[in-house]
Specification:
The chain is mainly alpha-helical. The chain has 68 helices and 13 strands. Helix content is about 50%, strand content about 5%. It has a 3-stranded antiparallel sheet with strand order 8-11-12, with helices on one face. Strands 1-2 form a two-stranded parallel ribbon. A two-stranded antiparallel sheet has the order 3-4.
Length: about 1500
């Protein structure tokens, strides 16, 4: 057996070592995370302690879920966990982009008039729903056949494709749902599962649940919710299952009520508006067209004339019949809907105008306008409504909308425009360009349409007679002469970035989330106001539009298939119900298209993320319309030649016009040939001409080069020459490509040109310095992907080489030493070095490689700025950056910064205002200590592996054993050992400074040293910095798995409180502490000892009392005692020196002795939460010993441990301490966020005696509080009336004119204080500027005056009288409440709490231990229905489940009656009374016995509940 195996079994069989190893595995953080925020106490959780379904789903612990279901283990299921589970099966519509095509949804409108170019689009559709109707309203035969549009195929296509990030397949998640439905249905079906599936766009889940064997009901409200919120595939699934739902429950989803509002529901969506509205409109069985608004208005006028104001408007049957004919016999299925109109007329819902004009379908706009079902009119600026890029049919509709809904236009003018438009439309002359003529008509008749005339002139190159000069379009290209315009351009891109965040889903791994640095430099990919991409994807249904500018292509005039896109709008307008606040698409005067429809579900799947290094227009949101029609014919032809690698065409253009240059948008996306050889030919052509075709706009030049280098590595390309205009702009090209991180372009420029002009302009330096942002307000580091490492290293190498070249003088040029050029390249190198530091996962080896390349003089500064120090620390360990990010006050500093709100900018000017709040790292971090060498400096070291050492020792032993036998062999062995030793010797680099040394210094400088600063609290806005900072330190130590640091910090805190008594701001009473609540039966009791410390020498001390103005000097011996528990020793805290020195002789019996106040460290909730999660029993006890004399500290810990279901520690606490229960279970609220079941199970099984008399728990607890209240009353009274906010009460108390007023104040204040005590509102709830210590220090004159009044004998007597009255009134009130509301009817009793929470499992557990003590009340029924938790009513409606209840729905008639009265009022659950009405009525008609009929009706009405 090998030595390794021998050692393994020795360790494995040693119980102590084995246990210690596993404790180390569990307690230590073994993973080094790149993201500092990933360090937390939740990283190490045992499977046995994991109960949350949400945690198991989010961590893909499907086998664990199956195991828990199989073995009956508890699983905590709530709405959020169900949502997360269903989201794993979400079928969100993805949008794919590639170089040549854009996914388009030609949902319904492939017109017969479309020419062959449209066929190219058919292959690009993500979701052609087979609804290719011919835009006529005569296809009545579709009905539900269209609805059943091969959904199974659609689902199969989507299956396993939409959730690429999931670890498991869809079938695995569906299996989990099936297991939960089979074995845990009562716990799982706690919400409307179908609505949850609709919300998460999960049609597979819907199909599983609605079909047998589960047959989950689909409510009509859920169906309406889907129409208004879900995606197309989910809606189709619901439509397909409508018949099954009706068969199971008799509920019609497609009722007449639904049909009369379905179009309105779809049209008023925020997303996928056009797609869903088209689906409804192309399926006549899903909607009914409302009566025309003109007809309604005419009837209203007639009614007014007849003065029939009190009669309800009804549409005549004749009108309805005519409307139904116009609607393609929509009412074919009305046989199922006859009963809907029996009781009341169902109202139609119309479409609001502000939603109507957001539809992107020409057919929908045209049809809704003809049906006259659009409410409202234009109420705002119309100057941007008609768009130049709209195709012919859409432009016609645009004009008609203007004519119909614009109030200011004269009727005669409307007729004239319509006549002119009709003439254009009916003109069939050969060569007549309808689109051009219609555009010309719009320019003439609607001259105020923004930029329309400009783009008309740009497309056709002609002016229109009779009109003024062409209105100018504001230039968007940055010019060096106007630097501020460039800054505006950067800000414009920042807006695009922010808009991008709203449109596209970014996972947690997106490196650029909320990246302020990128907001200001790099946002060409940041989807500008929707359509500035100019993505001329000729396959994206834009084939026809590309030819709209050609005078001879008349066949394209009628094509409108290109205008609809699967992309849908994500408008954020907030319109009121009347549509008064209408917002219409606006045109800012640039190339942007604000009508781009984008669905929030759609993500840019190109590389699954946006780019912020080497970005270009490919990464912008694609436009619905090909806006190349804004370009001239020559520009379009030239762009087409580039795409097709038509060099001959390019050469011809160059020969005809040597000065030709492209005049296209700076947001244009160049389509490059696919083949590398073709790309190189295109590149060679433009390089040969010095890229003069882009001389009009250097941004366009950068965009073209970016497009090429995205496909071909810059290493295969070179720029040999540039035209003069671009050469003159070389300084800007260098700066722009560097600053916006277009490193591909920058690399080509750097290879081809030497930059001798100074790169030192103030504006350039200003922008480059804005790069010093290190993290944002959310604590997310500003970083880039590590894939850019190689390129940045290349750029640094090129820059460093050029840096050496420019130092040489240029022949023929005097004074050309190159100092300024050297400085410029120095700036470039340092900038690139800073970007290198930002790379995620950058290793020390990579950084050292870069530093070897960079000249020493550029990195020779011994002092590093905070920006670099921060990233040096992050490279060493992200734990260091986590510590800095979480410093208290850092977020405040970011909020008050001038330029980079919500981001930490190291270049922010340091404030000199002493009143400013916030933690400025630069002020406290000593850069003389935190150097590169201190943080990352390494040295060579020789080492051996453990195995090598063992083998060497083993060989030596063998040699010694054989020494006497064979000297020759021994010599040979020695030689072998020497050779092996040299081979096994490893040269490694070791950090000079240990991790703990750096961390210790970091904590010292950024926390401990600041605590003694007088102005320290300014950092935390006036709050106690000591408490906030050390709490953050404690939380950090546990988050990184360093309990040793945690204990050292506790020791430091304890010593600090002793030596800085005067600075302490938090005090607690010493009664009912862990020490006083020790149980004699516990194992701890006998180990606790209080011993006297050795008698100190007599010292002379000066003490200042707070009750007198005189200072007394006296000689005292400081007495102290020590708490000793086993090996643990702790000084017993002395009473705080900041106190009221009550004169005990003047106080009467109820109020003395005053409980002792001691200084304390306030542990915030997140710290206690971390402690209770990671510490074992012994560690929890050790922590308690640090706080052994603080009031109710054991109870505070108990509350956190209960929340986490730490049974092991709870058992220890309950065996050793007297934990007082005021309520049970501990947390009683509808949103408790933890498992009441596990708490109840633990207490019932281990300490049932503590809660056996559950109805008396609260009463007994209140009585104990009543006994303690007098001893803290006087301090509490002084604190309360001395608060600034209680200034009026204070004045009333101190006045002597009217003692009745003072007595009234005393009684009212005592009542308030007692209520606060009973509600557990104590010192923790106070701001640091209102706590007791603060008042004693800063309100001394008030405190002394109030104290003197209280100590008066008559005041003491009234205090006692008032106290007795308050306590007596409280007791009487408790008795009355107990009589009026018995415990079993109180909604706060444990059973009704669980019942209202919908927790069936906990309810049954409580009933098991308290049989026949609880009942269901009418109030609880009302509350359950209000919270939509009918599942628990359905459960207890079955008599078999009510065995331990006092009542049930059979023996309690009032309960059943109340349920029947409440259900019809509920918008969803009213269906439980009517779901089987049709079948029930038929059965009743066949029964001749009236009594039996009544009984059957009662039974059948509630049949679904049972």
């Amino acid at each position: 057996m090998e030595i390794h195996e021998i050692l393994f079994w020795k360790v494995f069989k040693n119980k102590y070592i084995f246990k210690e190893i596993f404790n180390q595995i569990h307690n230590n953080e073994w993973i080094e995370y790149d993201d500092p925020n990933k360090y937390n106490v939740n990283n190490r959780c045992k499977f046995g302690d994991t109960h949350s379904l949400q945690i198991m789903i989010n961590n893909d612990l499907l086998p664990l879920i199956k195991d828990k279901i199989k073995h009956g283990d508890h699983i905590e299921i709530d709405n959020i966990s169900i949502k997360d589970l269903f989201s794993k099966l979400s079928k969100k519509q993805l949008q794919y982009y590639n170089q040549d095509e854009q996914s388009i949804n030609n949902n319904n409108y492939n017109n017969n008039n479309n020419n062959n170019n449209n066929n190219n689009n058919n292959n690009n559709n993500n979701n052609n729903n087979n609804n290719n109707n011919n835009n006529n309203n005569n296809n009545n035969n579709n009905n539900n056949n269209n609805n059943n549009n091969n959904n199974n195929n659609n689902n199969n296509n989507n299956n396993n494709n939409n959730n690429n990030n999931n670890k498991y397949k869809d079938e695995d998640y569906l299996e989990i749902i099936e297991l939960l439905m089979k074995d845990r249905r009562d716990e799982f079906e706690i919400t409307d599962l179908i609505k949850m599936a609709v919300r998460t766009n999960s049609p597979d889940v819907i199909r599983l649940l609605v079909n047998k064997p589960y047959s989950v009901i689909i409510y009509p409200t859920t169906f309406e919710f889907a129409i208004n919120n879900s995606n197309l595939e989910t809606i189709k699934e619901l439509v397909n299952l409508e018949s099954i739902n009706f068969k199971n429950y008799g509920i019609k989803l497609i009722s007449e009520e639904f049909k009369r509002k379905s179009l309105s529901l779809a049209a008023h969506r925020k997303t996928l508006k056009t797609t869903i509205t088209e689906f409804i409109f192309n399926n006549p069985s899903l909607y009914s067209i409302p009566p025309p608004l003109s007809l309604i208005n005419n009837q209203k006028q007639k009614q007014k004339q007849k003065q029939s104001t009190n009669k309800r408007l009804k549409v005549s049957e004749t009108s309805k019949s005519n409307l139904n004919n116009n609607n393609n016999n929509n009412n074919n299925n009305n046989n199922n809907n006859n009963n809907d109109d029996d009781n009341e007329e169902i109202k139609y819902e119309y479409i609001k105008f502000n939603e109507f004009i957001k539809l992107k379908s020409t057919n929908l706009l045209k049809s809704f306008m003809e049906f006259d079902i659009v409410q409202g009119r234009f109420k705002k600026n119309l100057n941007s409504f008609i768009k130049m890029y709209h195709p012919y049919e859409r432009l016609k509709v645009d004009v008609r909308i203007m004519l119909k809904y614009e109030d200011k236009m004269l009727d005669q003018t409307r007729k004239q425009i319509l006549n002119k438009m009709n003439k254009i439309d009916t003109n069939k002359q050969k060569g007549f360009n309808k689109l051009k003529e219609l555009r010309k008509l719009i320019v003439i008749e609607f001259p105020k349409q923004n930029n329309f005339y400009f783009f008309y002139w740009k497309a056709y190159g002609e002016k229109i007679k009779g009109l003024d000069n062409i209105p100018p379009k504001l230039a968007s290209n940055p010019r060096d002469s106007d630097f501020f315009q460039y800054l505006d351009y950067i800000e414009e891109e920042k807006q695009y970035f922010e808009e991008e965040e709203d449109y596209y889903y970014n996972g947690d791994d997106d490196e650029e989330e909320n990246n302020p640095l990128l907001n200001n430099n790099n946002n060409n990919n940041n989807n500008n106001n929707n359509n500035n991409n100019n993505n001329n994807n000729n396959n994206n249904n834009n084939n026809n539009n590309n030819n709209n500018n050609n005078n001879n292509n008349n066949n394209n005039n009628n094509n409108e298939g290109e205008e609809h896109s699967e992309q849908e709008e994500d408008e954020e307008e907030n319109e009121d119900d009347d549509g008064d606040n209408e917002e219409y698409p606006t045109d800012s005067g640039s190339d942007e298209d604000s009508e781009n429809e984008v669905d929030e579900e759609i993500i840019n799947d190109l590389e699954n993320k946006k780019r912020y290094i080497n970005s270009y227009n490919k990464f912008r949101k694609a436009s619905i319309y090909d806006i190349s029609n804004r370009y001239s014919d020559l520009d379009n032809s030239y762009l087409k030649a580039i795409k097709e690698c038509n060099i001959k065409m390019l050469e011809e253009v160059n020969k005809k016009d040597p000065n030709f240059f492209l005049n296209v948008s700076r947001f244009h996306y160049f389509q490059i040939p696919k083949e590398t050889g073709d790309i190189l030919k295109i590149w060679e052509f433009f390089d040969g001409h010095g890229f003069k075709q882009f001389q009009g706009d250097q941004e366009l030049f950068i965009e073209f080069v970016s497009s090429v280098t995205d496909l071909v590595s810059p290493s295969r390309l070179e720029i040999t020459k540039l035209c003069v205009p671009l050469l003159k702009r070389m300084d800007f090209l260098f700066f722009d490509t560097l600053f916006r991180k277009k490193f591909n372009v920058f690399e080509l420029l750097l290879k081809g040109f030497v930059f001798r002009e100074p790169f030192l302009k103030d504006e350039y330096s200003e922008l480059l310095n804005r790069e010093k942002v290190i993290f944002n307000i959310k604590g997310k580091l500003i970083q880039f992907d590590n894939i850019h490492f190689s390129q940045i290293i290349r750029l640094i190498s090129l820059s460093a080489a050029t840096y050496q070249i420019v130092t040489l003088p240029v022949p023929g040029i005097a004074n050309s030493s190159g100092i300024l050029a050297q400085q410029s390249y120095g700036i470039i190198i340092n900038y690139l070095y800073d970007q290198l530091l930002r790379l995620k996962g950058l290793t020390i080896n990579q950084l050292e490689l870069a530093r070897l390349i960079i000249p020493d003089q550029l990195l020779s500064d011994s002092r590093c700025e905070v920006f670099r120090v921060f990233f040096y620390l992050n490279i060493r360990s992200s734990k260091f950056s986590k510590y800095i990010i979480e410093r208290p006050g850092v977020d405040t500093f970011m909020y008050i910064s001038e330029d980079y709100a919500e981001n930490y900018n190291c270049n922010e000017p340091q404030t000199t205002n002493t009143d400013d709040f916030g933690f400025d790292i630069r002020k406290y971090l000593n850069l003389d200590i935190f150097t590169y060498d201190f943080i990352l400096g390494r040295e060579f070291n020789q080492s051996y592996s453990a195995t090598d050492k063992f083998n060497n020792n083993n060989n030596n032993n063998n040699n010694n054993n054989n020494n006497n036998n064979n000297n020759n062999n021994n010599n040979n062995n020695n030689k072998n050992n020497k050779n092996n030793k040299n081979k096994n010797k490893k040269i490694i680099k070791k950090y000079k400074t240990q991790f703990d040394t750096i961390l210790k210094e970091l904590i010292k400088q950024l926390s401990l040293d600041i605590c003694t600063d007088i102005d320290r609290d300014r950092i935390t806005g006036g709050q106690d910095f000591f408490n906030y900072s050390l709490s953050a330190d404690l939380r950090f130590s546990l988050a990184i798995g360093r309990k040793d640091i945690f204990w050292k910090l506790l020791d430091w805190i304890e010593q600090y409180m002793i030596t800085n008594d005067s600075l302490m701001k938090y005090q607690v009473y010493q009664f009912n502490s862990p020490y006083e609540s020790l149980l004699q039966t516990g194992s701890l009791f006998s180990n606790v000892n209080i011993i006297e410390s050795p008698p100190p020498s007599t010292t002379k001390t000066t003490t200042t009392t707070t009750t007198t103005t005189t200072t007394k000097t006296k000689t005292t011996a400081i007495e102290s005692k020590i708490l000793k528990i086993d090996n643990f020793e702790k000084p017993i805290p002395n009473e705080s020196s900041v106190k009221i020195d009550w004169n005990s002789d003047k106080l009467i019996e109820p109020f003395k002795p005053i409980h002792k106040l001691i200084n304390s460290f306030k542990f915030f909730g997140d710290v206690l939460d971390s402690i209770c999660k990671v510490m074992d029993v012994n560690e929890i006890q050790r922590f308690i010993q640090y706080n052994f004399f603080e009031s109710n500290f054991q109870f505070s810990l108990y509350s956190y441990l209960v929340f986490m279901n730490r049974d092991d520690v709870l058992l220890f606490l309950l065996k050793n301490y007297n934990i007082e229960f005021d309520v049970f279970p501990f947390f009683q609220s509808e949103k408790r966020g933890y498992s009441q079941y596990l708490e109840c199970k633990f207490i019932f099984e281990n300490h049932f005696e503590r809660v056996k008399n559950i109805s008396k728990l609260n009463l007994e607890w209140c009585e104990r509080r009543d006994l303690d209240f007098p001893f803290i009353l006087l301090n509490g009274f002084v604190k309360y009336i001395c608060k600034e906010k209680n200034f009026t009460i204070y004045n009333q108390f101190i006045q002597n004119a009217d003692l009745q007023i003072r007595n009234k104040v005393i009684k009212e204040t005592i009542e308030k204080l007692k209520n606060e005590i009973d509600a557990n509102i104590g010192e923790d709830e106070d701001d640091d500027t209102e706590n007791f210590a603060f008042i004693l220090r800063n309100q001394k004159h008030k405190v002394l005056l109030v104290q003197s009044i209280i100590e008066q004998s008559d005041t003491q007597l009234y205090f006692k009288l008032a106290l007795d009255q308050v306590l007596l009134e409280l007791k009487e009130k408790r008795k009355i409440n107990e009589i009026n509301e018995p415990f079993n009817e109180n909604l706060k009793n444990p059973f009704l709490q669980a019942f209202i929470g919908g927790d069936i499992k906990t309810c049954n557990l409580i009933l098991k231990y308290y049989p026949n003590q609880f009942k269901i009340t009418t109030n609880s029924i009302t509350k359950v229905l209000k919270l939509d938790r009918i599942h628990i009513i359905k459960y207890y409606y079955k008599l078999d489940n009510c065995k331990n209840l006092i009542n049930n729905f059979k023996n309690d008639r009032n309960l059943l009656k109340h349920l029947k009265n409440e259900l019809p009022k509920h918008p969803i659950y009213k269906n439980h009374l009517t779901c089987n009405n049709n079948n029930n009525n038929n059965n009743n008609n066949n029964n001749n016995n009236n009594n039996n009929n009544n009984n059957k009706n009662e039974k059948n009405k509630m049949s679904y509940l049972s």
